[in-house]
Specification:
21% strand; alpha+beta; three-stranded antiparallel sheet; elongated; 35% helix; 5 strands; Rossmann fold; single chain; two-stranded parallel ribbon
Length: 124
C-alpha cells in the first residue's frame, strides 16, 4: 500500500525504517531520497490523503461502514478523478463499506451507477 500512497505524493516518499516504523522522506529532482520530513511539511491535500488512507488501511474492521463527508476538500482536481477508485480498492481489500457525501462530479467520475442523489429521496 505504500506504493499506492507514494503515487499521490509529489517529490516525497513513504518507506519503513530499520525498526519497521513509517518514515516520510523528501526526494530530489533525480528521485533520490533525502532527509526525513515531518507530516506538517505536506500540503493540506497530501495530509488529508495520508490521514484518510491511513485510517482506511490500518483502522477499519471487516463489514465496517466508513462515512466520508466531502472528501474532495483540499484535493487538486486531478486527484479527485482518481480518488474514488483508490478508496474502493482499499475498502475492497479491507472488506469495509464506503458511504460518501460529495458535491464533486469529478470525484464520482464515471461511477454514477453507485450514486444515490438525496434530492430524489426527499418528499416535499
Amino acid at each position: 500500500m505504500l506504493d499506492t500512497l507514494n503515487i499521490w505524493l509529489h517529490r516525497k516518499h513513504f518507506q519503513t525504517d530499520s525498526t519497521g516504523q513509517f518514515e516520510l522522506c523528501a526526494m530530489d529532482h533525480n528521485g533520490e531520497l533525502r532527509q526525513p520530513l515531518s507530516l506538517d511539511k505536506l500540503s493540506s491535500g497530501e495530509q488529508q490523503i495520508v490521514y484518510l488512507l491511513g485510517l482506511l488501511i490500518f483502522d477499519t474492521q471487516p463489514k465496517q461502514f466508513v462515512l466520508l463527508d466531502e472528501p474532495e476538500h483540499s484535493l487538486y482536481a486531478a486527484w479527485q478523478d482518481d480518488f474514488l477508485p483508490l478508496l474502493q480498492q482499499i475498502c475492497g481489500l479491507n472488506d469495509c463499506y464506503l458511504l460518501m457525501a460529495t458535491h464533486s462530479p469529478s470525484l464520482v467520475g464515471d461511477d454514477w451507477n453507485i450514486v444515490c442523489e438525496l434530492a430524489d429521496q426527499v418528499e416535499n
